[in-house]
TrEMBL record:
<dbReference type="InterPro" id="IPR001480">
    <property type="entry name" value="Bulb-type_lectin_dom"/>
</dbReference>
<feature type="domain" description="Apple">
    <location>
        <begin position="337"/>
        <end position="416"/>
    </location>
</feature>
<dbReference type="InterPro" id="IPR035446">
    <property type="entry name" value="SLSG/EP1"/>
</dbReference>
<dbReference type="InterPro" id="IPR036426">
    <property type="entry name" value="Bulb-type_lectin_dom_sf"/>
</dbReference>
<keyword id="KW-0325">Glycoprotein</keyword>
<dbReference type="InterPro" id="IPR003609">
    <property type="entry name" value="Pan_app"/>
</dbReference>
<protein>
    <recommendedName>
        <fullName>Apple domain-containing protein</fullName>
    </recommendedName>
</protein>
<dbReference type="Pfam" id="PF01453">
    <property type="entry name" value="B_lectin"/>
</dbReference>
<keyword id="KW-0732">Signal</keyword>
<feature type="signal peptide">
    <location>
        <begin position="1"/>
        <end position="25"/>
    </location>
</feature>
Length: 417
């Protein structure tokens, strides 16, 4: 299934755009698209007149973009595949099947966009043969899950508003936590759920739900984790903002900037519906109502390629000659791979964005930490805590947080010439 999942998502989205605004988390019932593969094949169908590859019987579906048409086709009776046909009715040449949604798993009779926004292919028993909920991109809808076994394992940010390819951030489900990564291996946030402190207790899935809390009668959006070997009443959650109205039209998105936000769709006084930003993980706000907030300084790119951050603001541009005013052009020069071609300069009271949520190595001596960085020409600098002798190697510097603690030291490489 995985092999064609991305193509299927792509193709569906191409025509979804033509049918309704894609930004709706849940498609209004009157604008959903549903196609059931049943009834008289000879009516309104062209397979008797026009030849197509493999000589199947088929039913064209409404989505059509010249010269492509989505069809159910079968080459053995009652074993339908959702396929993409290429060719034109007028041409005498044989039409080709250029893509299949469910190769090897035929039986598909229906295609539907459900009211929760899930796009499904159903077999004759009503079971889902394929569903878009299993292939999220950067967004989870209410009822949609990440799963530790079998996936989907993560959301991946989009690169930019104009470039819809995988970006550098991912939101990942792991047996013991939910975590945010920059470039797959640099963790800049993770959940801390006390329910998971016991050895054999692990997360099974994390599902976006509208959940009433024990204490409040209002609806509450939460990313709720279901556990294996946990107690039946234990559901560790990320609380994502309280609302006074039915908020099942909501979605959680990993943004282009690596931030996690919950948006909800609500009717306003004029009867229009508007998107409201309900929750932002990395936010200037103080903690409130049990919700988790992080300083924006934890976002790897908050202050660009190299900048000093304090209380969610970019406050400086470190150089060997002192800290200058921040600008988005602040950067370091590449140290190169010659071990005698660079030196280090020290910054006091700063941490790398990975320090807060990764253990680093240690205890080690500072000289060992330095020599590790020196021998590794991809290392741009290292971070060292003198109070517990822990060491972090940085392959990208990005945003450094000012922590006001003299036990946190940074050593940045610069070329000597
Ligand atoms: C669906 O219903 C909404 C609200 O009743 C209406 O504004 C919209 O035009 C309808 N869409 C279609 C495709 O009929
Ligand atoms: C999990 O650990 C608890 C306490 O250590 C134990 O009672 C239980 O049997 C374990 N469950 C499994 C499935 O290993
Ligand atoms: C999540 O896990 C729970 C507990 O194993 C299970 O009952 C539930 O069906 C799962 N939900 C999804 C959407 O996979
Ligand atoms: C919230 O809206 C959903 C979808 O429209 C509906 O199924 C659900 O019953 C509503 N819940 C409440 C509490 O009104
Ligand atoms: C390394 O840098 C030193 C000092 O700049 C220089 O003398 C030496 O030739 C360089 N070695 C190489 C292999 O480039
Ligand atoms: C500095 O770090 C030490 C050791 O981790 C800690 O006890 C102390 O509270 C920190 N000081 C500040 C100002 O954060």
């Amino acid at each position: 299934m995985a092999a064609y999942s991305y193509s299927l998502t792509l193709i569906f989205f191409c025509f979804l755009f033509r049918l309704f605004l894609i930004s709706n988390a849940v498609v209004p019932a009157n604008e959903t698209f549903r196609y059931v593969n049943q009834g008289d094949l000879s009516f309104g169908n062209d397979y008797l007149t026009f030849v197509s590859e493999y000589a199947p019987t088929y039913r064209p579906l409404p989505p059509f973009t010249f010269p492509f048409q989505l069809c159910f086709y079968n080459t053995t009776p009652n074993a339908y595949t959702l396929g993409l046909r290429m060719g034109t009715l007028r041409s005498q040449s044989v039409m080709r099947w250029v893509w299949d949604a469910n190769r090897g798993k035929p039986g598909v009779v229906g295609f539907a966009i459900l009211s929760d926004g899930n796009i499904v292919l159903r077999d004759s028993n009503g079971n889902f043969v394929w569903q878009s909920f299993d292939y999220p991109t950067d967004t989870l809808l209410i009822g949609q899950s990440l799963r530790v076994r079998g996936g989907p394992y993560k959301l991946v940010s989009r690169e930019s508003a104009t470039n819809n390819v995988d970006g550098v951030y991912s939101f990942v489900i792991e047996p013991k936590r939910l975590a945010l990564y920059y470039k797959n291996n640099m963790r800049y946030w993770s959940s801390t759920f006390p329910e998971l402190n016991r050895d054999n207790v692990t997360i099974v899935n994390a599902t976006l739900v509208v959940q009433e809390t024990e204490y409040e009668e209002n609806n509450f959006n939460a990313l709720r984790c279901n556990l294996q070997n946990g107690q039946s009443f234990e559901f560790p959650t990320l609380d994502l903002g309280q609302v006074q109205y039915n908020s099942s039209l909501s979605y959680l998105r990993l943004g282009i900037d690596g931030n996690l936000r919950l948006y909800t769709y609500r009717a306003n006084v004029r009867g229009n519906a508007v998107w409201t930003l309900l929750y932002t993980l990395f936010d200037k706000r103080e903690d409130e109502g049990g919700m988790i907030f992080e300083d924006e300084c934890q976002l790897p790119n908050r202050c660009g390629n190299f900048g000093l951050c304090e209380d969610s603001q970019c406050v400086g541009c470190p150089t060997p000659n002192g800290v200058f005013a921040w600008s988005k052009d602040c950067n370091t020069k590449s140290p190169g791979c010659n071990a005698t071609g660079f030196k280090y300069y020290q910054l006091k009271g700063v941490d790398h964005f990975t320090v807060k949520y990764t253990a680093g190595t240690g205890p080690v001596k500072q000289s060992e930490c330095e020599s590790k960085c020196t021998k590794d020409c991809k290392c741009m600098g290292y971070f060292y805590h003198t109070d517990n002798s822990r060491c972090w190697i940085a392959y990208e510097l990005k945003t450094l947080t000012r922590v006001g603690n003299s036990t946190s030291l940074a050593y940045i490489k610069i070329p000597v010439t």
